[in-house]
Write the structure tokens for this entry.
Amino acid sequence: MVDAGGIRLHVQRTGPTDGRTPHPTVVLLHGLLTDSLASYYFTVAPAFAAAGLDVVMYDLRGHGRSERPPHGYTLDHNIADLEALLDRLAVTGPVHLVGNSYGGTIAFGYAARHPGRVASLTLIESEPATAAWAAKLGRILHRVTTELAHNESDAIAWITAHRGHNTARLAKGAARLARETTLGRDIPASRVLTEAQIRAVRCPVLGVYGGDSDLADLVPAQRRLLPDFRAVVLPGHEHSVLVEAPGAVGGHILDLVGAGAGAR
Amino acid sequence: MNPIQPVPAEPTADTVLADVAGMLRTVLAEYGDDDVVIGMSTTFNRDLELESIDLVTLAGLLEERYGQRVNLAEFVAGMEFEEIIDLTVGRLVEYVVWSLKTDRAG
């Protein structure tokens, strides 16, 4: 556990222990509600560590083993947590940020605020915070808070029947988080980025999408706004492409990070 | 950091099962479950209702006990998603016994 400016965050760090020249740091940010650092820990993290990267994973506030305050769940809170965490871990050089879903939105927000501190950015099934993003998250979170948090037993019975036992248990955890915190109200009310702020992110950006996910529709917009953007669409996958196809996703990230590290 | 018993020179499935069951009880105690029966066929997901973040805790306990020879993340990273969901205590025990033997042979 690391105290990141008044909040205790669960951090896992892995990588070379040879004590030689500093290794590039990659920070892995997970998604909302049902997610935790485990989605990286058991997928791409071992390969990243074996490739010589200093790998930092943490549970977002309210998630996994991190502290769950009742309030304070806007995007700005999450970006401030990342700033405090990197300070606390004494990571000073430019970092490679990888974000899955909402984690990518946090990573992009950090890069927009600190362009000089980010070596590369990977957005897995993710997008920058825009007004359209906030409206979409508002709709999703409204459904979670009304259907799940307030009619939980009916909703869980439906999910168990249609999506299976494992998804139902994840949904229970999501309902608890939505009930115990203001997350459902805070995230849609987050401050979003202007087009100029999005354009200011000039580091290499990799977008990874599931071919069956509607987020792949965002590729043209990102290509128009970002000076150094490349996209990978993995057919046959949806929003959970990271845990379903970790080999492919991790390989593309290592390609990007390797190229970025060489240029530095 | 102070295991109750030292790791035996020839760990068997039985001794490793006893260790792993103890670690799982530590993880489950956080949920208030303290009377769980754990055997080789027990599944992490369906029987113990462990979430993936609980397996991160278990990975830390395994490393504390056996050192870096036993790396749960590497073991699991080679599996398909469905395989992880169906993972049993027995498969983990076999992996631990195998890792400790491989280490001596290597």
Summary: Helices of chain B lie at 13-29, 52-66, 72-77, 81-85, 89-105. Chain B has one domain: 13-101. The interface with chain A takes residues 45-46, 49, 51-53, 55-57, 59, 71, 73-74, 76-77, 81, 84-85 of chain B (CB under 8 Å). Residues 13-101 of chain B form a domain with the Non-ribosomal Peptide Synthetase Peptidyl Carrier Protein; Chain A fold (CATH 1.10.1200).
